[in-house]
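Submission sheet (multi-component)
Chains listed below:
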Amino acid sequence: MVPVTWYLWLAAILFTIGLSGVLLKRNALIVMMSVELMLNAANLTFLAFARQSGNIGGHAIAFFVIAVAAAEAAVGLAIVIAIYRTRGDVNVDEVRALHE
Amino acid sequence: MQAELVLFWIFAVPLVLTALGVLIARSPVYAAMNLVAAFFCLAGIYVLLTAHLIAFMQILVYAGAVMVLFLFVIMLLSLGDEHLQPERRRVMQYVGVGGALGLLSVLVAAISRLPDQAMGPLANPDRFGTVKAVGQVLYTQFLLPFEVTSLLLLVAIVGAVVVAKERI
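Outcome: structure written.
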């Protein structure tokens, strides 16, 4: 049997890759893809602990995470389209109208 | 169970490689394709964890619906070739990646403190993670969050149309 810690390590690596993507990439689309990676890492942790404890509640939480991620992707991509329409660019460093 | 170990590595190694591919890919389309591959590998990992319903939803919702949405937006934006050039890096970005690696070390330290117990056999292995089992929990214990999720999706649909449409 694969110990639960291996799944947790895998989730930690996946979360770190996603976080690095959010911090390193400047294209808003790839930043959102990295956020999806981080959400999936959280899901993997939920499912690993659900499998270890035999508690099916973790599966329900993973279900809700997927639903929220779908909603987040729809709204986030709509915002990306709106930004592209007004600025002609999707570089997250250039979008600082509220900051200035 | 040697087969589970082999399958874990078969899915885990491509998962990490394709996830890194999202970061390394030069064009957003390649990044999206890497992400689809990563989601498929992750679905395999979910099956290893006897989460069959979530594995199917992973493929249907993530690899299917969400990634099609991403590819459609990439197509709509039609970014020019200047976006394929290597980006100008700032010092703060490298500091951020260093912070992410620091988080990884903290997580690994926390995980290695856990008692390294192998996952025992399930009490009811043929009913764990199936549509029936998860559905039963969703409609009893998690009924209110389940209904609120439908409201959330409705708000997301309306919000996406309002934000993205030029003229309502």
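Remark: Chain A has a mean pLDDT of 90.
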